[in-house]
Amino acid sequence: MDITTILSNVDSFLWGVPMIVLLLGSHLYFTIRTRCIQRRIPQAIKITFSKDPHSPGDISQFGALCSALSSTIGTGNIVGVGTAILAGGPGAVLWMWLTGVFGIATKYAETFMAVKFRVKDHAGEMLGGAMYAWERGFNRKDGSTPAWAKVGAVAFALLAAIASFGIGCATQSNSLVNVIVSNVPGAPTWSNWAIGIAVAFLVSLVIFGGVKWLARVCEKIVPFMAIAYALCCVVILFMNGHYVGDALGLIVTSAFTPQAGLGGLAGAGMAKAIQFGCARGLFSNESGMGSAPIVASAASTSNPARQAMVSMTGTFWDTVVICLLTGLVIVSTLCANPDADALIATGSISAGAQLTSLAFAQIPVIGTPVLVFGMILFAFTTIIGWSYYGNRCVAYLFGRHAVRPYQVVYVFVSILGAVGVGDLVWTFSDIANALMVIPNIICVLLLSGMIARETKHYVWDGFIEEKDETPIPVHEEK
Description:
Elements: H1 3-14, H2 17-33, H3 41-48, H4 61-72, H5 75-88, H6 91-116, E1 119-120, E2 126-127, H7 130-137, H8 147-182, H9 191-207, H10 210-239, H11 241-254, H12 269-285, H13 292-296, H14 304-336, H15 338-346, H16 352-360, H17 367-398, H18 403-418, H19 423-435, H20 437-446, H21 448-460
Antiparallel strand pairs: 1-2
Helix pairs in contact: 1-19, 2-6, 2-12, 3-14, 4-10, 4-14, 4-17, 5-6, 5-12, 5-14, 5-16, 6-11, 6-12, 6-14, 7-8, 7-20, 8-9, 8-17, 8-18, 8-19, 8-20, 9-17, 9-18, 10-11, 10-14, 10-17, 11-14, 14-15, 14-16, 17-18
């Protein structure tokens, strides 16, 4: 057995039952510890659009949310949902949705932790994430960090930096190129290189400008692309109006019965529905991975609970809304078009992107172009979003002087991803993406008592506007 096969097996294993148990279990635990913080979603959405200008931070709360959404609202919302339905049947949509509902609590908890223990560098820029929570959350009385906590911090930062090259950059660049090439008849063989270089140039314009420039770009692109995509989904649901009720019923019953409910998907079974629905949902919203809290830590916010509430709306929009709309669109399209179901049964439709494309093609003239354009924007914003996560982790590990070399390599990797180079490297990065969850979740669990206690004060006792007067320390440069 060669190294590629071994790494592929490890990757499949990590993103299978172990990750589902770890993340879904954490989602349920934090839902209980935060007294079902999901109930505060309406208030959190309201806070998202308010400003907290006199609080410490580099970017607005809305800018931090859009920057985080830039990496979570991506091809997983389009291709991932279709893939889950093909592998697990319509019931996978319900399980995918449930991971989003309960994942809101984990996103709240990990962001609370990151903002609580954020620091600033000598230039005054905010730094945060699981690595700083590990370093500061378990300090001894003399201010020193235990060796075991330092290991947790380094492990998270290293794994997240590695993962940024694969899941955040190369795979997204490859998806972007494939979408363009597959929709341009007669595209020349060198087009992958040309598109890759163009993507690299555009990525460079954003990531070399720093977090403020990144936030400004995301504030413009993310809401636009999400609203446009959602509107198209609503149009398709209107066109499939007579079948939406059947689709909803099929999604619910298929999640708990041994049959998937459609001829081409029959036999997927409840176990497959749970496995693939949860796996794609967890992968899509990144709750528990510790990625989004890195940029949330740069937000101007008066206390950790306020930004944590803003951040948890990211999971709501990403999975509870966008993924559900995509799932309803696909399943209702299959109900309305028996021929499409037959194409699945015969193997003519075997990929999630094909299934979503079939649904959007129902909108005359603009359906397919909107989907293609949306996938391009989704992939691009994921690339720029993950670049920030990676550079913050590299800065923690090696100091600020290492950020620029990292960014140069990151841009180069976007070109390699476009031309499909290095499958072994991308698989390794995907493994790192899964493994970074472990130190992040362990840290949040160890600090869950503090999170629950302060959540009670800020959220449930009504002090969400209270300013946290705890000084933000300056982090010593490596």
